[in-house]
Amino acid sequence: MLRRAGSSLRHFLLERKSSAGYSSCSREAKMSRPVQARRLEGIDKNIWVEFVKLAATYSKVNLGQGFPDFPAPDFLQEALKRALSEGSHMLHQYTRAFGHPPLVKVLAQIFEKLLGRELDPMTNVMVTVGAYQALFCCFQAFVDEGDEVVVIEPFFDCYESMVKMAGGTSVFVPLRPKAPKDGKLMSSADWQLDPAELASKFSERTKAIVLNSPNNPLGKVFSRGELELIAELCVKHDVLCISDEVYEWLVYDGKEHIRIASLPGMWDRTVTIGSAGKTFSATGWKVGWTVGPDRLLQHVRTVHQNSVYHCATIAQEAVAQGFQRELTLYGKPESYFVQLPRTLQQKRDLLIQSLVAVGIKPIVPEGTYFLVADISEFKSDVPEVPNSDEPYDCRFTKWMMKNKGLAAIPLSTFYSEAHKNNYPNFIRFCFAKEEATLKAANDILQKWKKEKTSS
Q1: Does any domain span residue 392?
Q2: Domain encompassing residue 438
Q3: Among candidate residues 361, 442, 428, the one with its CA nearest the CA of residue 180
Q4: Mean pLDDT of residues grouped by 10 in the chain (455 residues)?
Q5: Which of 68, 199, 295, 455 is deepest in the core (most CB within 10 A)?
Q6: Which pTM does this prediction carry?
Q7: Are 387 and 428 within one domain?
């Protein structure tokens, strides 16, 4: 028996040796057929990957990417510690796929107040891996080949890519700036939709409109009148609204954030998207959500269960505790939802002062982490390159990072290919930073201004 086994083994090894040449060739053979899916064509390049790398390499002060460099609130950090050390061991395991029960329940309670209607936490709320995944699920759930999606420019750049991946076509409509009166600084409110132009973008092919209020990058908070115009067109053309409201708590100067789902005729056709990262200054936790009618969310759940399926239980538990605190303090001065916008408004004003002092003209944002500014005063440092394929603001921002150590994001990032050169002298800064970071940015700008004056 042992002899037979040994003989068989020798035979196997001899055969393997004789076929070694073939095996070597097969390992070296390369595929010749295309491997990339057509839906990825044209979206492989991502400016965030490029600019994050540049900022990490060259910048001393990063006012580019939109995240706070100050800590999340103590109560949220304590909630995470409790969940890790004192919570049930089951918090380290899977929870409900569509949202940890304590989190969807408290979100339903919060949004019942905000929307003025009763919500079922199990069917009207779904938790996602950040608002980014919520957006992806919506586009995959609702957009088919041949569908058109109205996108308001400037826009968060992933909208266009996600529409394309779903097989749809983005139809762009711009916010157009109106010059302010009496020499005042321009406000994000001065960027407005033209009602006739917006109406012209709707057709029988229109499946949805993407609304982002407060808007990234401008910081525009859409007024009730503007939202009613959008709502009227959605109802008239039987169109869905994907409402990205991740900055819903970050509004300034007494402005009011109005949720379009609360307007007549809009609940049944709107999915509202939110973010714990922006709400609690914890962007790395990647906890987001969708709120809407079951007839819409059932399809969003289908995409979720067949892709990501589940979000981190421990992070959901901590966010749920954070919302429980805020529900108790709702509308009170101690609420983080009251305190955070006050703090950020002060930071916004600090950056505005620094920019104005050196001749850069900011567009005063009504909300978000961001402000857009006109850098024409410094254009002489980065001359135009005739017939360049790269937008001027892109080249300027790269030069500023490499030569001045200050990171920002070009405004052209937030425009479609056809419109990237419409506002070449504008870049976006993030002011959700420590005072020391904003002071360091001010020092760079002041030094730069002195160098220009003395040259």
Answers
A1: yes
A2: 46-70+335-454
A3: 361
A4: 52 54 61 86 84 91 95 98 92 97 98 97 98 98 97 97 97 95 92 98 98 98 98 98 98 97 98 98 98 98 97 98 98 97 98 97 98 95 88 95 96 96 97 98 96 83
A5: 68
A6: 0.92
A7: yes
- Do residue 62 and residue 146 come from a single domain? no
- State both tokens at 174: 């711009």
Question: What is the separation, in whole angstroms, between the first and last Cα of the chain?
Answer: 94
Same domain, 310 and 346: no
DSSP string across 145-210: TT-EEEEEES--THHHHHHHHTT-EEEEEE-EE-PPSTTPPPBGGGEE--HHHHHHT--TTEEEEE
Q: Who contacts 346 (Cβ-Cβ below 8 Å, separation ≥6)? A: none
Indicate whether 185 and 309 sit together in one domain.
yes
Those residues whose C-beta lies under 8 Å from the C-beta of residue 158, and which sit 6 or more positions away, are 132, 135
Find the CATH number of the domain harbouring 193: 3.40.640.10
- Domain closes at, from 263, 294, 329: 329
Same-domain pairing of 129 and 265: yes
Residues with Cβ < 8 Å from 35, sequence gap 6 or more?
none
Any idea what the Cα angle at residue 79 is, between residues 78 and 81, rounded to 5°? 60
Token pair belonging to 4: 């037979």
Q: For residue 393, give the CATH number of its domain.
A: 3.90.1150.10
Domain boundary residue, one of 300, 329, 358: 329
Q: Please tell me whether the peptide bond between 195 and the residue prior to it is cis, using omega within 30 degrees of 0.
A: no
Q: Tokens 């001027």, residue?
A: 392
pLDDT at site 15:
57
H or E segment to which residue 428 belongs: strand 426-430
CA angle at 111 for the pair 110 and 114, rounded to the nearest 5°: 100
Any residues with CB less than 8 A from the CB of 16 and at least 6 apart, and which? Answer: none
173: Cβ–Cβ under 8 A, 6 or more apart, which residues? 150, 151, 152, 153, 193, 197, 198, 201
401 domain residue, yes or no:
yes
Chain center to CA of 252: 20
Taking a C-beta distance cutoff of 8 angstroms, is the pair 327, 345 a contact? no
State how far the alpha carbon of 303 is from the alpha carbons of 137, 142, 395, in Å.
6, 10, 39
